[in-house]
Amino acid sequence: MSTALAETRGIVKRYGPTTALADGRLTVLPGESHALVGRNGAGKSTLVRILTGLEAPDEGTVRFDGDPAPPLTDRDAWRRKVACVYQHPTVVPELTVAENLFINRQPLHRGFISWRRLKAEAAELLGTWDVRVDPDARTADLKVEDRQMVEIARALSFGARFIILDEPTAQLDNREIERLFTRMRALQDSGVTFLFISHHLQEVYEVCQTVTVLRDARWITTAPVADLPRQALVEAMAGEAIAEQAERHRTAEAAGPVLLDVRGLTSAAYEDIDLTVRRGEVVGLAGSSASGKIELAETFTGLHTPAHGTALLDGAPLPFGDVRKALEAGVGFVPRDRHQQGLVFGMSIGDNATLSVLDRLGRHGFVGTDRRRAVATALIERLDIHAEGPEQPVSDLSGGNAQKVVMARALASDPRLLVLVNPTAGVDVKSKESLLARVDSAREDGTAVLVVSDELDDLRRCDRVLVLFHGRVVAEHPAGWRDHELIASIEGVDHG
Amino acid sequence: MADTKAPPVKPVGATDTGSARTVLLRRARELALVPALLLLMVLGAIVNDSFLTERNLISILGASAALAMVVLAESLVLITGKFDLSLESVVGIAPAVGALLVLPAAQSGWGTELPAALALLAILVVGAAVGAFNGVLVVKFKLNAFIVTLAMLIVLRGLLVGATKGKTLFGMPDSFSSLATTTFLAVPLSVWLAALAFAVAGLVLKYHRVGRALYAIGGNADAARAAGIRVERVMLGVFVVAGVLAAVGGIMQTGYVGAISANQGQNMIFTVFAAAVIGGIALDGGKGTMFGALTGVLLLGVVQNLLTLAQVPSFWIQAIYGGIILVALMIARVTTGRAQD
């Protein structure tokens, strides 16, 4: 066998009293796509930071092509070995694609930047790797997948042939993910090696040949994906057998009265939507990212205003375009992106969890500190948030726990209608289970739940799933649907 | 299966027109104020006969030169994503230190009676030193730029009042006012210097790596660092350069007025920010051009001049001036079509 392109052995990394990585082991062979999986806090990001030379390990060695890694200060040498494309963009949004590709190494003409050559070289670079992006475009205007390809092209232009993709699919819909994978495979054919980090196990099976599992800061196993069935992989990650996708058949309690009754709802994003949700019913909304499903869900929370149509909540008209009024009408809401809309990261768990119910915690706008503390503590317990207490800042929490805080806020107002948009995005397997368990308990106390998600596991819990395509409801699947049926209607291949 | 995949075909024409439009849009942002400026000129010409005379136009430029230097300084800091409020105090204290160094004790100087050339150099050094101090606090100690420079603004103002005991300094050598009094082609040297400074800054921002680094840092400091830009060093440099530019603005102001009062530059920072933001410099960094900033300065200069020519009672000038800044901001928002931030 050939020498490993990148190899880490016995890596130990401590931050103060916590050991972030106790036994970091990874061997990536040239030309493969290697998956790195593990729950939040398993040590994946620490290993990536060490592998990209952002931090030195306390113990252990890093080798590239059999040679020891360059010193940390020699950024250029690292950049020729390895590059990481993070979930958060490392491009400058206001600059053009061309400039981002050659930032701080723009081609010069007598000491001044030659914009003509910069553009030409950028076009050539993008062409070489078949990245179809206009070099003149403002980077902020790019789609996420294109932005990722620009970052990959930039890394390749430094001479790196080993690219780490840190949760590249987190913000993409199915179609975009498929395109990213196509491009990954093409790049792999031209000799690029990938380390692929994802929470979505089916993606690992789709694009990777080898998988390494980390758990509790330790290496657990490395195996060809073909030899590790899904169940075994989940067990390796969780350290215990999780009954995955408990396929419970709902006894469709269609008896509940209609809580949400929507008639002829139309806006720029969707058209003529009729929809009813009963008390204690969980309804899923599926569709590609341009299908209008998120806008439809946001309509009920006051974030998106429709042009026509009505929605009755428990017989009373639901006010549109006003989040405050929607809250008062009894709508609880987990927004699509916890970083952008979900949480105030500088504030504590308690502040965040009670943000939308402050008026209930005291009189005339004053907030009772003890009341708030009590409410927050109860929410932390109810949702099983792993935290020191309500005073801990949200920014300390892992993705899964932060998402539970968002869920706590949605539940704090005891909503009659609970709208969840991508409730388990970027969350590990175990937190996912506990977040989805909330959906079941909401069902039991008669709340109507609307779940919008790209994840089949989220939708599996629903009593029925409506599929939107170009802003129209095109299909309805009762519980018990098969994956390929739902995907077919999401992608629009089973109709027109 | 992978090696048989053909790349997806994409219409080329669509992206081309799209890019042409975005380029045009970006230009439009830069030129957003030009129509407003022209409109004001036409208005001025109608309202007052003496507005469009050569003498009046030159006086607008001469009166705006000092402001222009400080706006230039502030724009550089803003593009890098930071703040410097203390520039207005530099406009006062830097030339004052120079004056105190040359003036004899009898004219409330320090009695060192340094040669004028050395004193002028000292003015620039003071600007650089203040900038460096701000820079170290903000960049190395990671203090909030807004608060640090606000404190500096107050400290420097206090030092100026203390050093002059609140008195106005005058009787400086001619070289202190030569920037404002010497003319070339009928236009004061200070105007030429400000124009040159804007041209150089504009070129560097567009065509030099250091200039592009400012945008990169202001747009996404982490990305800039990852691209190998020495973020801390560049930021520190920007603070120093801004201090020096403000000190030059101070010299121009001194020459224009002919003396240094203890409140020289006071409240100037509000006008500076107004000019920069009207001119399209984003308060949260990474956006804006020197041309835009310059049009912001000229717009405010023309407005000020028009108000004076129209003999608006001096008690009302401030209210009207502030109102016009608000309107200008709204116009800039509408014409650029993007949120200001």
From TrEMBL, chain A:
Swiss-Prot/TrEMBL keywords: ATP-binding, Nucleotide-binding, Repeat, Transport
Listed InterPro entries: AAA+_ATPase, ABC_carbohydrate_import_ATPase, ABC_transporter-like_ATP-bd, ABC_transporter-like_CS, P-loop_NTPase
Domain of life according to the entry: Bacteria
SUPFAM superfamilies: P-loop containing nucleoside triphosphate hydrolases
GO molecular function: ATP binding
Database matches in PROSITE patterns: ABC_TRANSPORTER_1 (PS00211), ABC_TRANSPORTER_2 (PS50893)
Residue span, ABC transporter domain: 6-241, 249-495
Keyword presence, Transcription: no
Entry protein name: Sugar ABC transporter ATP-binding protein
Species, as recorded: Streptomyces lomondensis
UniProtKB/TrEMBL annotation, chain B:
Pfam families: BPD_transp_2
Record bears the keyword Transmembrane helix: yes
Main location: membrane
Swiss-Prot/TrEMBL keywords: Cell membrane, Membrane, Transmembrane, Transmembrane helix
Repressor keyword on record: no
InterPro entries listed in its UniProt record: ABC_transp_permease (IPR001851)
Tree of life domain: Bacteria
Transmembrane domains' residue ranges: 31-51, 57-78, 90-110, 116-138, 145-164, 184-205, 234-253, 265-283, 290-309, 315-335
Subcellular locations according to the entry: Cell membrane
Topological category with respect to the lipid bilayer: Multi-pass membrane protein
Name this protein carries in UniProt: ABC transporter permease
Organism: Streptomyces lomondensis
